[in-house]
Amino acid sequence: MRTLKSILSFLAVVVVGVVLALGIRTFVAEVYEVPTGSMLETVQLGDRLIGEKISYRFRDPEPGEIVTFEDPEGSGQTLLKRVIATEGQTVELIDGVVYVDGVALDEPYVDGKPSDPIPFDGEGGGISYPYVVPEGCIWVMGDNRTNSRDSRYFGAIPVDSVTSRAVAIFWPFEDACIL
C-alpha cells in the first residue's frame, strides 16, 4: 500500500511540474536560439535568449524593443528583429538612413551598416517608400542591415504575430546580458 501511495505521489509531482513548465512556456517566457546573423552585433548567431510574453498582453511593442515573431513567409522559424515603427508612423529609407515620421533614427547598434531598401526580386521586396505602417502592425528590421530579411522585404508585420519581447541573452555565458 505504501508503494502505491509513493508512486501516486511521485506521479502527481511530475504532472504538476509538467503543467507548470508548459504554463510558463506558453504564458510567461520562452527560450529561443538565434537562427540567423540578422541581429549582429547586438545578438550573435546561436545565442540563447529569453523572451518574455507578459508585456504584450497589456501593451503593443514599442520602437527600439527587440521582438520575436513567426516568419511571415511561413518557414515555421521564429525570427528576431528590432521594432522601428508602429501603426500610423511613416518609414523612409534615404541614403542608407532610416527616417520615421521625417526624423532620422539614431541607431548606434547598426554599426554603420546602411539601411537601404531591398529591391524587388520576384519573390519579395520592392516595398514602396515612404511607407505608412498599417493599423495593428509594426515595422521591424535586423541590426545587421546588409544581411537581414525584414520589413524591407516582407512589409510590416501584424502585432498579433509577435510572440515575445527579447529581454536577455543567457548563453554563451560570456555574452550574457540584458537586452
From TrEMBL:
Membrane topology reported for the UniProt record: Single-pass type II membrane protein
Major location category of this protein: membrane
Enzyme Commission code(s) on record: 3.4.21.89
Xref: SUPFAM superfamilies: LexA/Signal peptidase (SSF51306)
Localization annotation: Cell membrane; Membrane
Keywords: Hydrolase, Protease
Superkingdom as given in the UniProt entry: Bacteria
A single Gene Ontology CC term: plasma membrane
Keyword Protease in record: yes
GO molecular function, one term: signal peptidase activity
Residues in Peptidase S26 domain copies: 9-171
Reactions this protein catalyses: Cleavage of hydrophobic, N-terminal signal or leader sequences from secreted and periplasmic proteins
Recorded coiled-coil stretches: none
Residues annotated as the enzyme's active site: 38, 81
GO BP: signal peptide processing
Family in the record: Belongs to the peptidase S26 family.
Name of the featured protein: Signal peptidase I
Gene name in the database record: lepB
